[in-house]
User: What shape does this take?
Amino acid sequence: MRAKKSLGQNFLIDQNIINKIVNIVNIKDKNILEIGPGTGNLTLEILKRKPKKIILIEKDNNLVDLLQNKFNRSVKIINEDVLKINESLLDDQILTVFGNLPYNISTEILSKWILNLNQKKIWFNCLVLMFQKEVADRIISKFNTKDYGRLSILANWRLNIKKIFDIQPSCFQPKPKIQSSVLFFEPRKNFLKFKNPKNLEKITRAFFMHRRKMIKKTYYHLFNNNGNIASQMGINLNLRPQNLDFDTYYELTRQYEYSRS
Assistant: This one.
């Protein structure tokens, strides 16, 4: 099966890496969702661990035909773009998610899932996801580092994140030009609640649009020249966006919502 560059396809073929990914979590009798199963190499190993059910989301019509022939009725296949699916309606059971995410939309998928999370009921118990290494580095980055930015702030708001391992290009067909990384995510039990999570996206986008400049101008624009909030929070407005930690951005978002209510 020829990979489609337009869909960001790179099929994982290294059996050792496939086994390592499947063994990250216990999946026996669990309800599994796999995003971008490709030719079904990971799916096959998941099936061997005897899950309760497997749902596959695959956009490529040719791959859907291949997967149906390969697995028959042992999996449920959804032939759809993952970005157009309401993930909370996929199943009435909590899902364990695996995904070799298409490189060209991986950050969009993760951001969508986080922003759409229900505060009372979360549709997954964990995510085992593969990203380009440089994207993974941004997701797990801490403040005061060059990779720190909107993606790490958003991801760490609702998720505990752990890097598992890197994967070399030779493990894929076709070989990508970059390394990949597998990350493990679990929902956070404690997090700051917002009226609208998209305000966190708005706040971080505004600040990191000028990441090399001091935050003073952006702050005053967002808060209508009111310096009291920064003063109360002890924020030095001469700092740059990467110098503010996660909790500061979460509190700024909450204060922004208060100022607009």
The chain has a mean pLDDT of 93. The longest strand covers residues 124-132. The chain has two domains: 5-187, 198-260.
